[in-house]
């Protein structure tokens, strides 16, 4: 389920797509998923595929495979369309993010805790290069705004 949440403050007006039924067995909260989605694409759920990435989370095939190839119910992970079908579905894509982040979970920014700041880096920079990395400007700005609005991520 997706819910749109718009907030106006003195400095910004922003709409968040709040993801309300993410996989519940992972460490990534729904607020965190929402902010990762916001950071990477403005959470554009109608963005389709461009280049080799698909959906609001901009998943690549390799990311999806690293995440354990989650699929829509009744889909077969070995089918050619399975990746795209999942990446374009907010729930399935959220499950993929959970899977990827759980797999690569680490303290990317070296602040002594593993939290959404690390998960955002894992998602955007990648599991192999997140240590010491920072979010690219545009992504970092959207992530920070989202975090301010949602409070706890
Ligand atoms: C979402 O992405 C599509 C395809 O790139 C684009 O046409 C549309 O304007 C985007 N929507 C928003 C709200 O940015």
From TrEMBL:
Pfam families: Destabilase (PF05497)
Signal peptide boundaries: 1-22
Lineage: superkingdom: Eukaryota
Cysteines paired by S-S bonds: 32-116, 37-43, 49-54, 86-92
GO MF terms, alphabetically ordered: lysozyme activity
InterPro entries attached to this UniProt entry: EF_Hand_1_Ca_BS, Invert_lysozyme
Any one Gene Ontology BP term: defense response to bacterium
Listed EC numbers: 3.2.1.17
Primary enzyme class: hydrolase
Catalytic activity, as annotated: Hydrolysis of (1->4)-beta-linkages between N-acetylmuramic acid and N-acetyl-D-glucosamine residues in a peptidoglycan and between N-acetyl-D-glucosamine residues in chitodextrins
Family matches, as PROSITE patterns: EF_HAND_1, LYSOZYME_I
Keywords in alphabetical order: Antimicrobial, Bacteriolytic enzyme, Disulfide bond, Glycosidase, Hydrolase, Signal
Name the UniProt record assigns to this protein: lysozyme
Species the sequence originates in: Brassicogethes aeneus (Rape pollen beetle)
Species lineage: Eukaryota, Metazoa, Ecdysozoa, Arthropoda, Hexapoda
């Amino acid at each position: 389920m997706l819910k749109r949440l718009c907030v106006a403050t003195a400095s910004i007006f922003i709409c968040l797509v709040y993801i309300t039924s993410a996989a519940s067995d992972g460490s990534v909260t729904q607020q965190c998923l929402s902010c990762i989605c916001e950071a990477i694409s403005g959470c554009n759920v109608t963005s389709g595929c461009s280049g080799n990435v698909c959906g609001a989370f901009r998943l690549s095939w390799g990311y999806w495979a690293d995440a354990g190839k989650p699929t829509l119910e009744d889909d077969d992970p070995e089918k050619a369309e399975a990746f795209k079908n999942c990446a374009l579905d907010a729930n399935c894509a959220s499950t993929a993010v959970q899977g990827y982040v759980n797999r690569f979970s680490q303290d990317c920014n070296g602040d002594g805790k593993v939290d959404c700041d690390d998960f955002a880096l894992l998602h955007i920079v990648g599991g192999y290069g997140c240590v010491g990395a920072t979010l690219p400007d545009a992504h970092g700005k959207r992530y920070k705004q989202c975090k301010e609005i949602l409070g706890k991520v």
